[in-house]
Amino acid sequence: KAGVTQTPRYLIKTRGQQVTLSCSPISGHRSVSWYQQTPGQGLQFLFEYFSETQRNKGNFPGRFSGRQFSNSRSEMNVSTLELGDSALYLCASSLGGGGEETQYFGPGTRLLVL
Amino acid sequence: QQQVKQSPQSLIVQKGGISIINCAYENTAFDYFPWYQQFPGKGPALLIAIRPDVSEKKEGRFTISFNKSAKQFSLHIMDSQPGDSATYFCAASPGGSYIPTFGRGTSLIVHP
Predict the structure, then answer these.
(1) A60 touches chain B (CB under 8 A)
(2) Residues in B touching A101 (Cβ below 8 Å)
(3) Which residues of A touch B97 (CB under 8 A)?
(4) Residue B38 bridge partners (DSSP)
(5) What residue ranges in A1-114 does DSSP mark as E strands?
(6) What is the pLDDT of residues A47-61, one digit of tens each?
């Protein structure tokens, strides 16, 4: 099976712009979670989507949003970019049953905000 | 508030040695404790996980030790190899939901 894929892998934006990141989960996985990884804050949970609905949400401002399509692919959007949004954004997929399911991470999209 | 505290931040071990990474948590609702391994340019990958009903779990050279009363758990890498050089994250999640809270990570370097 193909793993989790994320596009683009690298992105450079300027403050105030918006950005959309894409994630394709492993075939058959219905849950997609997004994480932000920075040297200062580590790995932080953004949100989780299951069957096109946001099921869980982390503690991030409303500028961070996402959606999931009927084929389980997910997109994450960040509006009005700030310098502090520079980070590695990771997507992870799982079957979606919750509990102790293994999450499989993609390689991430590295976003640099200038 | 950092709910999962991980130490050390970095660790250097000689080949064949034992690498030990420790984590402590505060939230007693946590009941699933996975460890992830991340290589540069890659996303984290699940290494091994434990639930609090057991005190130890071993998979190959990797062992998790769990102390429920102390709210601490640790990863032991036996016979450490240069290929084990990576960043290791502990995590914890509450029952019924797989939304983990991660530790800050430990950068492990194993010298040949």
Answers:
(1) no
(2) 98
(3) 56, 98-99
(4) B87
(5) 5-7, 10-13, 19-24, 31-38, 42-50, 53-57, 64-68, 74-78, 87-94, 104-105, 109-113
(6) 999 999 998 899 999
